[in-house]
Amino acid sequence: MSDDKTVLGLVGSPNKQGRTNQLVSAALEGAAQAGAPVELIHLADHVVQPCRDCLPWVCQSNLKCSFPDEAFELLSGKLLSCGALALGSPVYWWDVSGLVKYLMLKMFRVHARGGPLNGLPALGLAIAGGTGNGLISGLRPVYHFLQILQMRPLAPVPATRFDFDQALARAREQGAALAGQRNQRQPFASVAERLSAYDRLPYLGLDRFQERRLLAGLVCAALPPEAGLSQGLARAEALRAAGDSLAALEEIGRVYDAGVELFEKL
Ligand SMILES: Cc1cc2nc3c(=O)[nH]c(=O)nc-3n(C[C@H](O)[C@H](O)[C@H](O)COP(=O)(O)O)c2cc1C
Fold first, then answer.
1. Which residue's alpha carbon is at the smallest distance from atom 23 of ligand 1?
2. Domain 7-199 CATH superfamily
């Protein structure tokens, strides 16, 4: 079919063989198995130059950066012509990588006003592959990007080294879902409709205790049941329910630390 749209996967890590690549590749595997043409691009091969915030703001009307930037030309062209997007970032200091950030900022500057990606089905993936801290906060800038560019979001895939195989499986499923939506873009009719769709996504609204609780839970789930950390999880939750958020965070931190110590010995 000549108008069959591609599912585009962008890998935002400088490490081409790393976990971000594995996650994005898993999403594309799922998409390919569901019948979609797929394309994977490493942002490390196309490093976008920082937006210079130049004035007058001509790029929003001529849709082109005023400075030579072959990487941006290529990547924005791919984004504008694909049928669905899987964007993966490594988590660096609870945030996205610079490779991802520079692409996002220039896309905002050139294309946010025109909204050419309204309704594009899109999936965000992030791997907090060290401590696991930032497994959710690292996803938020990705979904902020998707939201500002008005893409139609699929539920995010957070990943850590404690649940990496499960995350790969979820990435495959979400990739198949992207494939199913790639040829029928559903633009948002209003800002309210769009914001409501983003508000309904899982994970992104977690507060700091809930994010730490999720992480501690993933560590505990990777341990044998006899590790005996479930009481600590319950204590932390009870403290939180009683309104003592400092004590709750301290307790969940103790559970996490104990869990990681055991995990390292597995
Ligand atoms: C500068 C830097 C900051 C990092 N910060 C975090 C972090 O906040 N949380 C975390 O879990 N891992 C962190 N890591 C570890 C990476 O998330 C981990 O190595 C991940 O696997 C990188 O993705 P990649 O394998 O695709 O390169 C950091 C790594 C680097 C290089």
1. 90
2. Flavodoxin domain (3.40.50.360)
